[in-house]
Amino acid sequence: MTAGEMSAPLTDRPQVLDGPFTTSQLLRLDEALRTADEATGLTFSVYVGDLDAPVRGHAEKLHLQLTDPDRSVLLALSPNQRVLEIVTGSVARKRIPDRSAKLAALSMAAAFGGGDLAGGIVTGLSQLVEYAGRG
User: Fold this and answer.
1) What is the predicted pLDDT for the residue at 20?
2) Strands 43-48 and 83-88: what pairing?
3) How many CB atoms lie within 10 A of CB 10?
4) Helix (H) or strand (E) holding 41
5) Is a pLDDT exceeding 50 seen at residue 66?
6) Contacts of 62 (CB under 8 A, 6+ apart)
7) Which of 7, 68, 102, 132 could bridge across to 95 with cysteines, CB 3.0–4.6 Å?
8) Dist CA 135 CA 105 (whole Å)
9) For residues 9 and 1, is the Cβ–Cβ distance under 8 A?
10) CB atoms < 10 A from the CB of 116, how many?
11) Residue 43 phi/psi, 5° resolution?
12) Average per-residue pLDDT in the chain?
């Protein structure tokens, strides 16, 4: 999901969400993604689902499918596999070095361990924005 991709069509029936997030969590994630994009000029995306082995390779393939991979940051998360990958494009990597991404991943993992998937993602995005600085 990227900022702006979480809107549902307007219907008379409520949408049934099939995933790990409540509606309020999805709104919180959407806002965090939008804020991250606007603050940095980079594009942040989150993928939550199973990742094929090798996990890093699958995350990198997902990243390459983004509109502008060079300026993109992908958080690929598989709760069932207990795996998190942060993939940065060439432009994004200059602003978010691997060491900074690893620190954000550690903070996210701590929140995930406490059962707060959405909160962990929001925390990680906030840290990545801080590392990337204003765009």
Assistant:
1) 84
2) unpaired
3) 6
4) none
5) yes
6) 47, 74, 76, 87
7) 132
8) 22
9) no
10) 15
11) -115, 120
12) 89
* Residue whose token pair is 């795996």: 83
Distance CA 101, CA 62 (A): 18
SS3 category, 6: coil
| Residue ranges per structural domain of the chain | 23-132
Half-sphere exposure of 84 (CA within 13 A, CB side): 21
Q: What is the pLDDT of residues 14-34, one digit of tens each?
A: 444 567 899 999 999 999 999
**pLDDT at site 18:** 66
- In DSSP terms, which residues pair with 66 in a beta bridge? none
Tokens of 41: 């000029």
The helix (run of H) or strand (run of E) holding residue 57 is helix 55-64
Cα separations (Å) of 125 from 9, 10, 106, 119? 27, 29, 12, 10
Which tokens belong to 47? Answer: 């993928």
Span 51-57, mean pLDDT? 97
